């Protein structure tokens, strides 16, 4: 579970950094679309891994939060893909939502 | 000018070896986990590869013996053949990973579908190898790869802590639990191994013969090996700095080439990103060319079959079929959908096991006064070579257990 949480924090944090770079206009259109696709695949892979993993009752709550947040991240990435297809830059709100997901995952990771 | 262009062999060899897909992601991950603490394997690896590149270039020039002719002579047919088979399998796996890397970089540049780019890239790489003479292959990939310098500029622009960077030159165990320490050694070994990938010496020694170097060019051999490796090494350090400055504070463990490309031009705009992606394409493409050609060079040299990229394909049929088969097999693996980083992990860690069997014969041949005459190793050369061979052997022994214990470098 530790490893899955670390990966989830990393993915959320990376998505946030990417969206900030996109907002600053530092990326090309092809890069944005392709990288979003890779991020979506990564998030999808994490969801699949979490769904397939056997969870001990002691960490069931942690696992559930992780799963919920990764699903939320996956949804955010899908929204961002729609923005990219319409050549619209992400809003500050999009960034805030991703930041919230990251924080939630970090809190879950740091709780014993 | 000709001498300057001659440097491209060293640059292409080192960029294809140091700054290939594996090293790009691996070194950035190391920076993201351990900041600058793993700078020392880069320095150690750079000195080791300069020492052995110079030796194999010298043996190729003076004794007219490329690496696999030396391997067969020094290890005997059976052990030599085992080394050849292992090296060929590793070359195919590495070539497959690099082809996927090229496809990713081109997709990031163009947005075209990845499978289409995969096939297109192999056709373009194959076409370039077929049409171009050796010197032009190294010039195109070596010089375009220099665009990667943008990563170095980006790293400097982010104001790294130079004194902390300096402290990274000395090995220091992290103050952490056993798992973290094992990860530290796994990454130290991976970085060291990636810098000494055996296809670099296969390609370099064959390249020295393709370029028709003579004993009077031995000074150039040392310069080409050193400057090319130092340039590749500087880019590797830049990747570690980017990992430490951009990813470590945000707990990002980069797993994708696109993440590293984004970091590579972090302070700059889209034009810098395009340049970096072109540089990455050239470096990784260069690595694909190196591995495909090395595979064929090795087989021909081991069985004493005619080989040369500078001779018409009909005169060196087996050699031509050899690199075509290498590319074809790599493409099959690439389109199968295996994750490129899985392939890279396999090639870097298992590659370690083959290293002593490649570097030992080179050291023996370079030190042999009967074959090398006045160009044989000095005592100092041999001592340095032996010390690195011992380190390589120790690393080879530790590689697979570390891979198992850390589950291929998984973070927690």
Give a verbal description of the structure.
- The complex is a heterodimer of chains A (112) and B (412).
- Chain A is mainly alpha-helical.
- Helix content of chain A is 81%, strand content 0%.
- Chain A contains four helices and no strands.
- The longest helix of chain A is centred in the middle third of the chain and has 26 residues, at 60-85.
- The mean pLDDT of chain B is 92.
- Chain B is globular and about 55 Å long.
- The termini of chain B are far apart.
- By secondary structure, chain B is an all-alpha fold.
- In chain B, 78% of the residues lie in helices and 0% in strands.
- The A-B interface holds A 2-3, 6-7, 9-10, 13-14, 16-18, 21, 25-31, 33-35, 38, 42, 106 and B 107-111, 246, 250-256, 258-259, 261-262, 265-266, 268-270, 273-274, 277, 410-412.
Range of strand content of chain B? under 5%
Number of strands of chain A: 0
Mean pLDDT of chain B: 92
Indicate the percent of residues in helices of chain B.
over 70%
For this entry, give a set of tags:
heterodimer; A: 112 residues; mainly alpha; 4 helices; 0% strand; B: 412 residues
Summarize the structure.
The complex is a heterodimer of chains A (112) and B (412). Chain A has helices spanning 2-23, 29-52, 60-85, 92-110.
Write the layout of secondary structure elements.
The complex is a heterodimer of chains A (112) and B (412).
Chain A: H1 2-23, H2 29-52, H3 60-85, H4 92-110
Helix pairs in contact in A: 1-2, 1-3, 1-4, 2-3, 3-4
Chain B: H1 2-18, H2 21-34, H3 39-62, H4 67-75, H5 77-110, H6 114-131, H7 134-145, H8 149-157, H9 162-167, H10 178-195, H11 198-210, H12 218-247, H13 257-264, H14 270-302, H15 317-335, H16 340-367, H17 369-372, H18 379-405
């Amino acid at each position: 579970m530790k490893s899955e949480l670390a990966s989830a924090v990393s993915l959320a944090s990376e998505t946030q950094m990417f969206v900030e770079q996109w907002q600053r206009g530092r990326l090309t259109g092809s890069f944005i679309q392709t990288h979003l696709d890779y991020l979506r695949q990564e998030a999808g892979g994490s969801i699949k891994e979490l769904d397939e993993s056997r969870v001990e009752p002691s960490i069931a709550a942690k696992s559930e939060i992780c799963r919920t947040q990764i699903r939320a991240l996956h949804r955010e990435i899908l929204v961002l893909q729609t923005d990219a297809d319409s050549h619209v830059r992400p809003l500050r709100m999009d960034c805030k939502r991703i930041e919230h997901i990251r924080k939630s995952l970090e809190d879950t990771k740091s709780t014993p | 000018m000709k001498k300057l262009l001659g440097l491209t062999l060293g640059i292409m060899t080192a960029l294809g070896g140091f700054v290939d897909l594996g090293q790009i992601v691996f070194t950035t991950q190391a920076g993201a986990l351990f900041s600058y603490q793993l700078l020392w394997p880069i320095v150690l690896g750079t000195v080791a590869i300069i020492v052995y590149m110079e030796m194999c270039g010298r043996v190729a020039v003076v004794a007219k013996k490329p690496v696999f002719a030396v391997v067969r002579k020094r290890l005997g047919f059976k052990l030599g053949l085992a080394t050849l088979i292992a090296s060929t399998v590793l070359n195919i796996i590495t070539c497959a990973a690099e082809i996927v890397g090229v496809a990713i970089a081109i997709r990031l540049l163009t947005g075209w579908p990845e499978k289409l780019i995969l096939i297109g890239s192999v056709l373009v790489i194959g076409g370039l190898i077929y049409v171009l003479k050796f010197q032009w292959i190294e010039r195109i990939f070596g010089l375009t790869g220099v665009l990667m310098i943008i990563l170095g500029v980006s790293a400097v622009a982010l104001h790294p802590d130079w004194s902390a960077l300096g402290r990274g030159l000395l090995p220091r165990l992290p103050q952490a639990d056993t798992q973290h320490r094992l990860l530290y050694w796994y990454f130290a070994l991976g970085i060291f191994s990636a810098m000494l990938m055996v296809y670099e010496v296969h390609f370099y020694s064959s390249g020295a013969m393709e370029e028709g170097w003579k004993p009077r060019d031995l000074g150039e051999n040392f310069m080409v090996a050193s400057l090319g490796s130092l340039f590749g090494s500087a880019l590797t350090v830049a990747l570690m700095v980017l990992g430490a400055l951009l990813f470590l504070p945000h707990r990002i463990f980069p797993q994708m080439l696109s993440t590293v490309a984004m970091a590579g031009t972090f302070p700059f705009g889209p034009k810098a990103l395009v340049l970096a992606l072109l540089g990455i394409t050239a470096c990784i493409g260069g690595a694909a060319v190196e591995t495909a050609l090395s595979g064929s060079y090795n087989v021909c040299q081991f069985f004493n079959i005619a080989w040369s990229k500078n001779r018409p394909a009909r005169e060196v049929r087996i050699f031509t079929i050899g690199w075509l088969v290498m590319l074809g097999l790599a493409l099959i693996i690439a389109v199968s959908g295996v994750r490129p980083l899985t392939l890279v992990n396999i090639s870097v860690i298992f590659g370690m096991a083959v290293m002593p069997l490649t570097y030992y014969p080179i050291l023996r041949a370079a030190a042999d006064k009967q074959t090398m005459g006045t160009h044989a190793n000095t005592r100092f050369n041999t001592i340095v070579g032996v010390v690195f061979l011992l380190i390589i052997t120790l690393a080879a022994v530790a590689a697979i257990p570390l891979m198992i214990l850390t589950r291929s470098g998984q973070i927690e």
